[in-house]
Structures are given as C-alpha cells and as structure tokens.
Design goal:
- It contains 15 helices and 21 strands.
- It is of the alpha+beta class.
- Among the domains are: 87 residues, Uridine Diphospho-n-acetylenolpyruvylglucosamine Reductase, domain 2 (2-Layer Sandwich), CATH 3.30.43.10; 103 residues, 2-Layer Sandwich (Uridine Diphospho-n-acetylenolpyruvylglucosamine Reductase, domain 3), CATH 3.30.465.10; 116 residues, 2-Layer Sandwich (Alpha-Beta Plaits), CATH 3.30.70.2190.
- A seven-stranded antiparallel sheet has the order 15-12-14-13-19-20-17, sandwiched between helices. The protein has a five-stranded antiparallel sheet with strand order 5-6-10-8-9. The protein has a four-stranded mixed sheet with strand order 1-2-4-3, covered by helices on one side.
- The longest helix is centred in the C-terminal third of the chain and has 20 residues.
- The protein starts with a helix and ends in a 15-residue tail after the last helix.
Length: 461
C-alpha cells in the first residue's frame, strides 16, 4: 500500500479531494459499526456514483488494498468494521429514489437511500415496502440487501431478500454487472442478484436495487399483551402462529429489557411483568378485527393478565418507538451491549428462550431476551463491559453456546444480522467444511485478489 500521503494523492485524483478523508478525527467516525471493535482505516472515500466507485475499486484491486463498503454503519455483526490499511467506501451519497413504478409494483433506488425514507415515499403513492429493520430511520437499502436484513414484519412478509427483483453492482476490478429488473419472473442463468443479496460486501459493491412493492394494507391494529411469566408468553408465540392468527409483527420483550426501555423513555410500561408481547395485525378491516379477537383469546388462554389495543395510530407508533429504542435503552444499562441473532423454527421458540436463560446463568452474564419471536428470530441482549477481559471471556462463551443451541434446535446462526466478524469462527458449525469451502471458492471467483471486506463471513478473508 502507498504511504498515507501517496494514498491521499492517488485517491484525490480519482474523485473530488474534499471527499477523500485521511485525518485522524475523520477516520475515528468510521472506526467501528454498532459492535465494540474499533480499527482506524487508512482512508475514507465518499463517492457519488457508480463510476467513482469503479475507479476506487480498480485502484485498490491493482494494489491489493482492502475495501470496506459502508452504509450507515448500523451493523450488529462487525460487517462494516474497517481493517488496518483499508479504504472505507462511504456510500450514503448514492441516495436517489430513481423510480417508483406503480404499474409494475416495483421501485429502483440507489444503495444509500435510507429505508424509512423509501418506505414513506412508496406509502405516499399507496404502496408498501414491508422490510422494517429496527434501525430503519438511519440504515440504508444497500446495507439491508447486503445483510438480508429483517425486522418485526418478517413474520408475515419475509425479509429484504424477498423484495429484491434485481441489483446493479460494481465488481472488484471496476466492471459493472447487473441482474434482474421489472419482470416478476426471471429464469435466465445463475441468479446473481440472490447471490449478492446477503454477501456482506465480500463480493462486490451493490449500487442499485430493484425492489418489489405491495399494495398498502387498508387497516392496521397494534396490541400489547402483558404476561406474569416468560415461558407461557413464549409458548403463546408458537401457538399463535400454529393457529393461523396471522399477525404482521409479533415481538417478545422480557422484564430486563422492558425496564431498560422504561428507564430510557418513561412511558409507563409495567416494570414488574416477566414478558410483553407487542403484536400488530394488518389487512382488510374485517380480517384485522377477526385476527385481533383470536389473538386476544389466545393470549388470555396462556395467562396474559391484560391485553390492550392501541387507540389510534399515534399510540401504536409510541409502542413501536419503544421497541426501536431498545439498543440505546440497553446501552444506558451497560458500557458494552452485544445484540445476538439466534433464530430457530417458530415451534422451538419456548425451548430457545429457556436455553438462553440457562446459558446466561451458567456463564454469570446478564442477558435480556427479546426478538421477532413470530418468525423464531430472537435477539438476546448481552450486557457487558469490553474493559473487563474476564467478563468478555464469559460473554464469548455465551455467544458461542447460544449459537450452538440454535443449531441444535434446527435453527441458524443468523436470521438477519449476518455473520460479519462476530460469527465467522462458527460458520462451519452450520455448513460444515465442504459448504464453507464452496463459499470461499465463490468469493475467489468474484474477488481473486481478496480486497472486498476481508475477514467478514470467513475468518481467513
């Protein structure tokens, strides 16, 4: 790699020098994502179009300089953490909503478009983009696609991967590729769009997304069920889905996390309860009414002491704001918070909840349990302090044991956060050596010089 002064000069020759950052204060802003590890990159570049991205990648590829694509930096798996000597590609300037096509129920957006802004734009014309990561107010569409991000509405509508009709991307050698478009069906060649979806920046830089849209549901209702015990609440989740109640979101929060949120927002949540279920149903009004009655009956059957319905959209948004505030709320409780991503079949949610509590007790670590429980995606929040090596050792054991337990119950290491650096060491547990070796060969085919986000997904780059 050239010396920093030479690197700056070279990069400033490829794009406006004001969009090339090498000063320590600037680099500190990019030293980590939402995970604890901090590494200063060698430089940050802020491209405004695919041509500038291609120029930077060609330059880096010839010199074997690592490149780390970055959207909003909200990754919870270390996927956007830089490497020493790397160039960070800040992609937020590629933020145009190019087209919303009502006739074909699709849209074309650049990778830096903020997810919430995109949702609002399509809802303004009566359409609906369901994926709703908890960080939707800041996370970007490119980052969502790169990690197959999910969210509460995944229980009914699926995750980001289910809404990708096509992609455009720049390969490490600077060439542009694309696959898919406005057609609902496509059976031509390998599905490169699906391959890049979830690739966590290790194969190419996604620049444009062709996203599938739906008609906007005409009615929606939010409910809150309070449980005096956690286990019946978890069992209620499994049976709600089995009996066809049809929620579009079904969230579980235990007492630890309810109290963290209440300390943060002071909104009157009941502190003494062991679990809350936050439930939303949508569709036509008659369907919403039917599903709401069924859900209330099931919650009461499993011991819910109170089931309330949000009076209006403002009250419903207040409840969902509380759920989205979970990470900052927990961060007030501990200097370091690791938000895990254990996902199991819906029917195994009660077992997984019990296992998380057992593992936490055995390792003497405080863990709050929450998650998009309706699709089996649990997010144990591990309260820690990275300044305490002995505690972080117990935290590492906790993370590994939660992952093993999820796999034992027929689940996966990650439901929506991705592997990143956080779980790279465990990938063979899920896919075995042959599966991981095949993934490495795909990586080599796209990125022969190994410059694209090395160290993510695979421990050896």
């Amino acid at each position: 790699m050239p010396p920093i002064s030479g690197l700056y000069r070279d990069l400033a020759g490829l794009l406006d020098r004001r969009r090339v950052l090498t000063g320590r204060e600037d680099l500190l802003a990019y030293a980590n994502d939402a995970t604890p590890a901090r590494v200063l990159p060698a430089a940050v570049v802020v491209p405004v179009d695919g041509a500038e991205i291609a120029a930077v990648l060609r330059y880096a590829d010839r010199r074997c300089i690592p490149v780390v694509p970055r959207g909003a930096g909200t990754s919870l798996s270390g996927g956007a953490t830089p490497l020493p000597g790397s160039i960070v590609l800040d992609l937020k300037r590629l933020d145009r909503i190019v087209e919303i096509d009502k006739a074909n129920l699709m849209a074309v957006v650049e990778c830096g478009v903020v997810t919430q802004r995109f949702q609002a734009a399509v809802e303004d014309v009566g359409l609906f983009y369901p994926p709703d990561p908890q960080s939707l107010s800041v996370c970007t569409m490119g980052g969502n696609v790169a990690t197959r991000a999910g969210g509460p509405r995944g229980v009914k509508y699926g995750t980001t991967k289910d809404y990708v009709l096509g992609l455009e991307a720049v390969l490490p050698d600077g060439s542009l590729t694309g696959y898919g478009g406005k057609s609902v069906k496509m059976s031509s060649g390998y599905d490169l769009a699906r391959l890049l979806t979830g690739s966590e920046g290790t194969l190419a830089v996604i620049t444009r997304i062709m996203a599938r849209l739906l008609p906007l549901p005409p009615a929606r209702q939010t409910m809150l069920a309070i449980f005096p015990e956690l286990d019946p609440a978890a069992q209620c989740v499994a049976d709600l889905m089995a009996e066809g109640a049809g929620p579009c979101a079904l969230e579980l929060l235990d007492r630890v996390l309810v109290n963290c949120i209440e300390d943060f927002l002071h909104m009157g949540l009941p502190r003494e309860v062991e679990a809350l279920l936050l439930i939303e149903v949508d569709g036509y009004p008659a369907q919403v009414e039917r599903d709401s009655r069924l859900i209330e009956d099931l919650c009461r059957r499993y011991g819910s002491r109170e089931v309330t319905v949000a009076a209006d959209a403002k009250e419903a948004e207040s409840l969902w704001r509380a759920r989205r505030a979970l990470l900052p709320a927990v961060s007030l409780r501990a200097p370091t918070v690791l938000t895990e991503d254990a996902t199991v079949p819906r029917s195994r949610v009660p077992e997984m909840v019990r296992a998380i509590r057992r593992i936490a007790r055995a390792n003497q670590v405080e863990v709050g349990v929450c998650g998009h429980a309706g699709d089996g995606n649990l997010h144990p929040a591990i309260l820690a302090d990275r300044r305490d090596p002995e505690l972080m050792g117990r935290v590492a054991r906790t993370v590994a044991e939660i992952g093993r337990e999820a796999l034992k119950l027929g689940g996966t290491l990650s439901g929506e956060h991705g592997i990143g650096t956080h779980k790279a060491a465990y990938l063979e547990w899920e896919f075995g050596p042959p599966g991981v070796e095949l993934m490495r060969r795909i990586k080599k085919a796209f990125d022969p010089n190994g410059i694209m986000n090395p160290g993510k997904i695979f421990t050896d780059g």
